[in-house]
Amino acid sequence: MFIYKGSTPLFNLNLEGLPQDADKCVVTLKQNETVISKAVNLAKAKISNDSVSVSFTQEETLNLNQGKVRLQVNAIIGESRFVSPIQELEVIDNLYEEVLK
Fold first, then answer.
1. Are the C-beta atoms of 17 and 29 separated by less than 8 Å?
2. What are the distances in angstroms from CA 16 to CA 20, 51, 79, 88, 93?
3. Could you give phi then psi for residue 98, rounded to 5 degrees?
4. How far is the CA of 6 from the CAs of 20, 52, 80, 83, in angstroms?
5. How many CB atoms lie within 10 A of CB 39?
6. How many helices (H) and strands (E) does the chain have?
7. Which of the ends of the chain has fewer CB neighbours closer than 10 A, N or C?
């Protein structure tokens, strides 16, 4: 799996195995010192086939550099926290390094 730098990737996260009463999840991309996190309120999110979609903006992905980026999902249920295994994705460089408008 990969991300093009400067794109607006949409991730469909499989929630299978996550307790049904989860309040929210936080999706985090980390590359060296760059950390980008997105919180998803599962009570208000549109969940289809045990999946929820999370997107990142051009501004966010322009902060990434070519190479590996790590992705992890944390879920919150009341006072409990659940953590997914870390996945590695490839960031593919983009010669145009500004937000397209």
1. no
2. 9, 8, 20, 20, 32
3. -125, 160
4. 34, 22, 35, 27
5. 13
6. 1, 8
7. C
For residue 94, the model assigns a pLDDT of: 92
* Lookup: tokens for 36: 């980008």
HSE toward the beta carbon, residue 72, CA cutoff 13 A: 11
What local confidence, expressed as pLDDT, does residue 51 receive?
Answer: 81
State the Cα angle at 2 between 30 and 42, rounded to 5°: 60
Q: How far apart are CA 89 and CA 85, in angstroms?
A: 13
Average pLDDT for 61-72: 96
User: Model confidence over 23-58: pLDDT tens digits?
Assistant: 888 999 999 999 999 998 877 777 777 788 899 999
DSSP 48-62: BTTEEEEE--HHHHT
pLDDT of residue 80: 86
Beta strands per DSSP E along 1-55: 2-4, 10-14, 24-31, 34-41, 51-55
